[in-house]
Design goal:
Strand content: 15-25%
Largest sheet: 7 strands, mixed
Strand order of the largest sheet: 2-1-3-6-7-9-8
Radius of gyration: 28 Å
Helix content: 25-40%
CATH class of the largest domain: Alpha Beta
Distance between the termini: 57 Å
Number of domains: 4
């Protein structure tokens, strides 16, 4: 059965004795903000310019299943809405709203309407925008206009509220909006503010993460789906569903699946599809997926690698939001809230990285705009009870704990199938990264000819996955020279590699091992130009241990050849030593290898940054 588009029901009522001169303009500008979505058929808009009780009840009775937002503009107070002909009592209207199964938000854009919030909550309304004091007509117009502009551009309710809040702050003399999760009735003081976004604590879902449909998703044709299924019996779910989602996040990728032959647009050979998928993920994730395509059937090793891909994807998402929070806390000279970083090996292997994304993201929101807006949707899906992302997360986390303690003896084929299907939803949550670039930055040089503006040459290269590990640094001078600087000896995340002005440093969480080999240029080789990516694992004997992302975490945690640590010296690095295995002896003598006194520790900078993060938690 076809689902109807969500209805946004706008009701307005004026008062000739206390005439609101801008009320008509509010209606018009809200409609203009949403008109494109209406024309495309993504939403329906119903407006009552002279709303009375009968008209509101008639609309809700007729469209009970489809109304998603109810907006009121006009005079109000804590117990009534001033409708045409008479006042609408809050209690009766709240009961009406509570009967709407798909209602997400009630927006009461009138003076001092906050008193109605609790009865709306009691009736089951999940979210309310209301005012606590009288507001100027122009403020009400602008706040509503920019809220719906935000919704129309794909923002969630929470993001759209902050969008309107930011605009309100630009108006001289205005009072800023307040983003609230609590009600004054719970005994917590609230400043005298106009607008608050109030969330019902008993609501099933966190509606701050809900958004309007704002585009038609890319959907693969049946012949393309069949083509993929026939080509990839072991990984068809990943290729089909994750690549399809990636095309939604970055429509240019869909074009990469086709080529021109004899003047016609035809599908590329199916062997190219995994590379399109892999190359548009950052290397820590893409390298894990690359390994999956080396398995041709259900084996225990494939099962472990499916779970490993989940863990590495979760780690990348966790470290990005942790880096964002750390940066914001440093800017404000505030202590960074608690985050799990100081882990031993067993704690690291058992740690649920994805579970911690939500509390970190909520801390970021308190400090400003997130570096990556897309976390809003991830957190919303993780929070929604019974969502596919939540189910997949719980399933893979449980499977990880099982694999850490025992070896499944039966039904490995079923376990592999279930793990792949669950992994699909984890990877779909991360496909937004196809719109970003992960870069390794080795060194930064500055050029400033006399009377000229300074330019920076960044010895850098992309860390999106490829057919092999030969990811050379950029050699084109135009690609290397930038008008803005970026951090060196680090991996950074950028929305566009054309500008380094907006970048997020991911040190010391993700690192390029070859960046830290401070060899002379005359001694460097092509091998030094190849990134070798590791993620932070655990702390042991005072040193941080990092794992090679090219292998399963189950393998890398066991093999010292897949690990490096911050105690390594330059001699260790040059001679290919990672974590020396010391042979036991029975003579009571120290047999640890002795390093020359002048051999510096290669990864000391990472250790210093880690120590700074720990210190910043204790400011």
């Amino acid at each position: 059965m076809k689902k109807n588009p969500p209805i946004l029901f706008f009701s307005f009522a004026n008062d000739q004795d206390q005439y609101l001169a801008m009320l008509k303009q509010e209606s018009t500008q809200i409609y203009d903000s949403l008109e494109d979505l209406k024309i495309k058929g993504f939403i329906s808009i119903h407006r009552e310019e002279s709303a009375d009780i009968d008209k509101i009840f008639d609309r809700f009775s007729k469209y009970k299943e489809d109304i998603a937002i109810f907006h009121y503009g006009g005079h109000a107070n804590g117990t009534h809405l001033k409708l045409e002909g008479d006042a609408g009592h809050a209690e009766g209207l709240a009961q009406l709203m509570g009967q709407q199964p798909n209602l997400k938000l009630v927006f009461l854009n009138g003076c001092a309407s906050k008193g109605q919030v609790q009865c709306l909550f009691d009736a089951g309304v999940p979210a309310v925008i209301a005012t606590s004091v009288k507001v100027q007509d122009s403020w009400a117009l602008n706040f509503a206009r920019y809220f719906y502009k935000g919704l129309s551009n794909g923002r969630t309710i929470g993001q759209a509220f902050r969008h309107a809040q930011a605009y309100l702050k630009t108006i001289p003399g205005s009072i800023s909006a307040n983003y609230l999760y609590e009600l004054p009735a719970w005994g917590k003081p609230v400043d005298s503010i106009p607008w608050g976004l109030y969330m019902n604590p008993n609501a099933k879902d966190d509606i701050t993460y809900w958004r309007l449909p704002y585009y038609k998703p890319v959907s693969f044709s049946q012949d393309l789906i069949q083509y993929i299924r026939e080509s990839f019996p072991s990984n068809r779910y990943i290729v089909q569903y994750v690549l399809e989602e990636m095309c939604n996040d970055n429509p240019d990728i869909l074009n990469d699946m086709y080529e021109a032959k004899a003047g016609e647009r035809v599908k590329k050979d199916s062997s190219q599809y995994p590379w399109i998928l892999i190359e548009n993920f950052p290397w820590p994730i893409g390298a894990q997926i690359l390994k999956l395509f080396q398995f041709r059937g259900p084996t225990l090793e494939r099962l472990e690698h499916l779970v490993s891909t989940y863990v590495l994807t979760s780690q990348v998402l966790y470290y990005i939001i942790l880096s964002d929070l750390w940066m914001k806390c440093r800017e404000e000279k505030m202590p960074i809230p608690w985050a799990s970083i100081d882990m031993d090996k067993s704690t690291y292997l058992e740690f649920d990285f994805l579970q911690q994304v939500k509390p970190l993201y909520e801390q970021v929101l308190k400090k400003g705009t997130p570096f990556v807006d897309e976390y809003e949707k991830i957190v919303g899906d993780l929070t929604e009870q019974g969502s596919l992302l939540q189910k997949s997360h719980l399933h893979l986390e449980s499977l990880k704990k099982t694999l850490l303690t025992q070896t499944p003896q039966r039904d490995v084929d079923t376990l592999c199938l279930q793990a792949e299907q669950a992994l699909v939803h984890i990877l779909k949550a991360a496909t937004f990264l196809s719109r970003y670039r992960m870069l390794t930055v080795r060194q930064v040089g500055i050029f400033r000819p006399r009377f000229a503006a300074p330019e920076y040459e960044l010895d850098m290269g992309p860390l999106n996955a490829s057919h092999d590990s030969s990811l050379s640094l950029y050699r084109d001078a135009d690609r290397r020279k930038k008008p803005t600087i970026s951090d060196s000896t680090s991996i950074v995340l950028v929305p566009s590699e054309d500008s380094m002005e907006h970048s997020l440093n991911l040190s010391p969480f993700i690192m390029d091992k070859n960046t830290f080999a401070q060899v002379k240029k005359s001694e460097s080789t092509d091998q030094d130009k190849i990134p070798h990516v590791f993620v932070m694992g655990w702390k042991e004997d005072g040193e941080l241990h990092y794992l090679d992302v090219k292998h399963s975490i189950f393998t890398a945690a066991k093999k010292v050849s897949d690990q490096v640590h911050t105690g390594m010296t330059l001699d260790d690095f040059v001679e290919g030593r990672t974590i020396p295995e010391v042979e036991p002896n029975d003579f009571g003598l120290d047999m640890d290898p002795v390093q020359p006194a002048d051999s510096p520790k290669v990864f000391q900078l990472l250790k210093d940054q880690y120590d700074q993060l720990v210190a910043d938690q204790k400011i």
